[in-house]
Amino acid sequence: MPEQTREADVVVIGAGAVGENAAERTASGGLKTILVESELVGGECSYWACMPSKALLRPGTLLQAARSVQGAAQAVTGSLDTDAVLARRDSFTSNWDDSSQVKWVDGAGIELIRGTAALSGPREVTVTDDDGTQTRITARHAVVLATGSVPTVPRVDGLDAIDFWGTREATSAREVPESLLVLGGGVSGCELAQAYARLGTDVTLVARGDLLAKFPEPARRLVEAGLRRDGVRIRLRTASSRADAYDGGVTLTLTAAGADGETGTADTVTGAKLLVSSGRHPALSGLGLEGLGLDPKHLGVDASGRVPGVDGGWLYAVGDAAGKAQLTHQGKYQARTTGEAIAARAAGELDGDPEPWSRYASTADDAAVPSVVFTDPEVAFVGLTEAQARERGLSISTTELPIAVAGSSLYADGYQGWAQMVVDEERKVIVGMTLAGPGVGELLHAATIAVVGEVPLDRLWHAVPSYPTISEVWLRLLEKYGL
């Protein structure tokens, strides 16, 4: 097998959005950086996750927004144009062509190598291309794992014999199926169930537990109501015990799922397609981590992204590969801090662990992670839930109320929304915020700034929300809190 040898300062494995950010930071810090990718440069978010899924969702959300305002509702006489929706989706993926991303990599002074990478020794990466040619790269300073995550497939009898969709197939589909079974009530399951229902598909969603289980109950119920309004049939606390193919579709055998296992009489649901959306886990197998004495199931990193237990401290992981929040924006944030830390260590400007809240530490991973569920209504969340805050031993209070302000009534007739503020009573700062309702995703960054900045409530009182906007819910929350 042909072999080549190379040297670089930094090797980044994985050219998704997270890997691109890490490589850009090390390259801009003056380090010779090689970026390795086996698929499309730009990764999951660009071609199969964030961008195409939101492109599928947006037209339906916009149509519903128009139908929610008298005067506009009368002007809406048709349904979504499926072909146009799919064509617009394709434009956001550049038709699954990564040439523009490759051009960006080149312009950033980063070298791209195509192939499958594995760690073959200390500071050493071996890349095998499609022709079997191997390139062995020695990294003088760091190797960064930015390999993302892969779907977790549940144990369901017969599923391995079914040609089912994962989220990749659902977001890149060329046609809209007549009917769809969605297995999983997490973020992707809810978003894609609604997207396809609004494109005319008959959708049934099956969840072993509740929808969006990490979010507060009122937010979950608003999303459930939105899905049901769009015709999605929802089976909660229901186990899928078997999957069978039949001529033209899939049958799932279902039973009620109780705390002590499956109970009740089995029944079945059928669909032309089955989408399995039951979570993801870090893509770390086949990377050679075992050869370094590391467990790929429990990798772990410090605040600068460095993997502990590696002599010389040269191995880093960012994004989904690091086992933290599986969110593109959070992974890019980690990549920026990690890239900066690697460059600083190489230049002798950083010795040991970085200071909290420095540019070399992804401190927000601990208690200030923002996320948005792009269903209609949306759910926007940052920080700690009530339960998480109590588990950390914080003395907290919660303030919650419906979103019913002048701005929300103007936004949509019959607007339904909900907000919750979690306050650390010892410090008198917000540690968590949940917003649910149409359009609330655009309110989230204000909450994120309040949490990250630890803005005292008596100071936040002077941040006057514009009238009439939905952001006036901030005033109502602070008033109910007692300010």
TrEMBL record:
- Give all residue intervals belonging to the Pyridine nucleotide-disulphide oxidoreductase dimerisation domain: 369-474
Q: Read off the lineage from the record.
A: Bacteria, Bacillati, Actinomycetota, Actinomycetes, Micrococcales
* Needed co-factor(s): FAD
The species this protein was found in: Arthrobacter sulfonylureivorans
Can you tell which superkingdom this protein's organism belongs to? Bacteria
A Pfam family that the UniProt record links to this protein? Pyr_redox_dim
**Which key words are in the record?**
FAD, Flavoprotein, NAD
User: Member of which family?
Assistant: Belongs to the class-I pyridine nucleotide-disulfide oxidoreductase family.
Supply the name of the protein: NAD(P)/FAD-dependent oxidoreductase
Kindly give the InterPro entries that the UniProt entry links to this protein.
Answer: Class-I_Pyr_Nuc-Dis_Oxidored, FAD/NAD-bd_sf, FAD/NAD-binding_dom, FAD/NAD-linked_Rdtase_dimer_sf, Pyr_nuc-diS_OxRdtase, Pyr_nucl-diS_OxRdtase_dimer
In terms of SUPFAM superfamilies, this protein maps to: FAD/NAD(P)-binding domain (SSF51905), FAD/NAD-linked reductases, dimerisation (C-terminal) domain (SSF55424)
- What region holds the FAD/NAD(P)-binding domain? 9-334
